[in-house]
Amino acid sequence: MDQTQNTEFFVKLLTEHQNRLYGYIYSLLGDRSRTADVVQETNLVLWRKFAEFDPERPFLPWAFSIARFQVLAHLRDHKRDRMLLNEELIQTLAEETEKEAERLGSFQAALRQCLQQLPESHQSLIEQRYLKSQPVNSIAETLNRSAGTIKVSLLRIRRQLAECVEKRLVEGSNG
């Protein structure tokens, strides 16, 4: 990758995960002002260290580990401000949040795969209802079906997706 592609790749990853990074840091600090400061510092450190990032590995756990160190540095530098959280608690919260992010990532990957396995008509129905937030009545009108039929179809598709995702997650944890 040349420098421009590298920069674009970094910006794409950072913007894609910015909300989760903010949420992670906020979960550790519990203060919006401090979180904004630490997110800004974390972004700078991520930029400086991006050459060390292995693109074969997930971005978010790497970013979380850097964010955790930035939170700890912030706590150390602001000890006199009488914060409620100590470093040990921050470490515990960080580990739990990272595990949860990993579980969410696994869930999202499984859901993506399960969605791709659905018939095109079911994919379209899911897209209209949940990605485009179209009301059931509107979908029913477009497809010339009753709202009740659409609701039942969506229920069945959701159940099918839930079973598929659960199966994939079980397979993933055993493999």
TrEMBL record:
This is RNA polymerase sigma factor SigM. It holds the Pfam family Sigma70_r2. Coiled coil: none annotated. One of its GO terms (biological process) is DNA-templated transcription initiation. Keywords: Sigma factor, Transcription, Transcription regulation. InterPro entries: RNA_pol_sigma-70-like, RNA_pol_sigma-70_dom, RNA_pol_sigma70_ECF_RHOBA, RNA_pol_sigma70_r2, RNA_pol_sigma70_r4_t2, RNA_pol_sigma_r2, RNA_pol_sigma_r3/r4-like, WH-like_DNA-bd_sf. It comes from Gimesia algae. One of its GO terms (molecular function) is DNA binding. Belongs to the sigma-70 factor family. ECF subfamily. Residues 110-161 form the RNA polymerase sigma factor 70 region 4 type domain. Residues 13-80 form the RNA polymerase sigma-70 region domain.
